[in-house]
User: What shape does this take?
Amino acid sequence: MFTKLANPSTFQKISDFIFPKCFGLFIVFLISGFYYVFFSSPPDYLQGETVRIMYIHVPCAWLSLGIYSMMAGCSFFSIVFKHTLADIISRACAPLGACFTLATLITGSIWGKPTWGTWWVWDARLTSELVLFFIYIGHIFISNAYEDKRKGDRYAAILTLLGIVNLPIIKWSVDWWNTLHQPASISKLSSPSIDPSMMIPLFLMVFSFLFFFISLVLLRIKGEVISRKLEILEQHRA
Amino acid sequence: MLEVSSIYLYRNRKQVFKNFNLNLKNSEIILLEGENGAGKTSLLNMISGLINPDKGFIKIYKKSIVELGNQKKKIFTYIPDKNCLKENLSVNENLKSWLNLSNLKVNDNKYQKALNTFSLNSIQESLVKSLSQGQKKKVALTKLLLSKSKLWLLDEPLNGIDTKTITILKKIMIQHVRKNGSILFSSHVKLDLKLTKRIILKKIVNKFNIDLLDQWENFQ
Amino acid sequence: MGKLSMKNFKTLLYREFIISFKNTKSLYSYCTFFFTSILLFVFATGPDISILSPIYKPILWMITIFALILISESFVFEDFFDGSLSELQFLGYSEEIIFLSKSAVMFISLIIPNIILIPVSSILFKVNFLDVIEIITLFSISLPTITLISILSALFSLQVKRNKFIQFILIMPFFIPIIIIATSENFFVTNLGNEFKIFVLIGLFLITLPLSILIGKLIIKELNY
Assistant: This one.
């Protein structure tokens, strides 16, 4: 597969082929998801209508962790095999990951106000999510801090490997410490502690966010590839 | 003793070496010439194992640089462009610390003689930060006299030193070659020395073609 | 091989000791920084000892971590700019040993002033003697970990020209677990026993050590390019 992606224009062709489909799927899932979220799914008997924030909060949270692990995989790939595509992907992912983390924090605190009575608590899961946000910020900073883009990529890859320690802490913080935040509802697919009427819209939203992310990443990768091509052209003209 | 074969190296999206070969035998001197950015320092850095070539291999005594590992300090002495001297230590302390790092034991007589060659005796107790640029270079070059290795790699050894010192350095180099040693050095200054070979490095200008945009390697 | 690298480690350690103890300026500036920052905290909160006494521990840790990040640069900066860092590499010293010896010397040159500074400053805050002993124990157990991390941050920022803040932004998240365990009485968990804290801190050190050696090696290699 990597030999097929071995040159930028083939990769470009593949991504141009995938992009419209991903974007279409995103729209389809979003519309159907919105229908379920606003009309079909019942309000929670404890939390009332505010439970609907969950359909944005949970996909964002999952993506914020997922993107980071994807970046960690990419940086491993870039350190071991020194493939530029890995660097480009993780450079494209970092701002999106930061946005999803920020969205998680904001929707979480909006949800927290009516249910817990406070915008923010210094609780294990919230704090570790905040730390994840700062790690993303650090990644963005360091990959742009050097005059040489390549250098920034290398250092950012190294930093990401260091930051991967945070992932298990976020994932299991709710189980390790007794916190305000509820434990994971969907830990086993066979017996989830969530009603199907809420699970269907949740998964629809998760897929729609996933496809949204994929199509955005493809766009960002395309931009990055084009900007690097321009740099090469510039260098050869000089 | 030194064998560099078919080296390829890319730095900052530019190809610096393309199928470069070099062979250095005992009692030979090779001068590297070339404009700035032609890759003189990169070549010396590659030989000393600081950076790795993208393709090709470098062997010293038929062993690759990675294999040598700990024995590197016995086999070659590299004087880089930077002086590698600690500003807060005196000349003596700097040289002693270097001897300690490279596992050498030199008796006092030889040590004083080495200092005397570049007339550093009077300043051996003064701190390096009080020395001039040329004096610092002389201190760095004194390491050559103290070392016992056969292969010398010198990066711009003639930068910033006066003509008197240049003649002394020339003498030292000739002596070293007579003792079956070999030298690889780079310089901008003309030096009338009997060279075995003069290698002129040139900047590689790859003609632009559209294929360049189609390889991930060029994106780095 | 093991014997040889031990010998290498000793030689390097000796060199680092000579360099860092010739340069006593950083030690003085560390002590001065420590007391001036304490002074600032006192001016900010007011002289009431009933307020000051309970926040002694957080103040101490804040100051230490900022000082560590600031001071760590001096251990690698000169070596990088006068070329000695690459000299060590082409003399055949492995990057792991270079990184380890630097952190070891930094640890020793920080633990000595702190063992004196902590009791002295605790008098100003009227802290219990038993508490001081607890603070010093936890401090000296967690100092190796934060030393490793701050040397890493210094290595990261060596080639950055634009701003110095990057060192803080990059590395602050990794100090959090250590601060939490070493200072807090009831953050997340109530009633952490002292033994538990010690075990967790040792565990964190054992996680950090191999990871930071690996990353230090990667950065030191990258610095040559």
Q: What stands out?
A: The two ends of chain A are 36 Å apart (CA to CA). The CA atoms of residues 20 and 226 of chain A lie 19 Å apart. Chain A has one domain: 18-177+198-237. The interface with chain C takes residues 79, 122-124, 127, 131, 134-135, 137-138, 141-142, 145-147, 151, 154-155, 158-159, 161-163, 165-166, 169, 177-179 of chain A (CB under 8 Å).
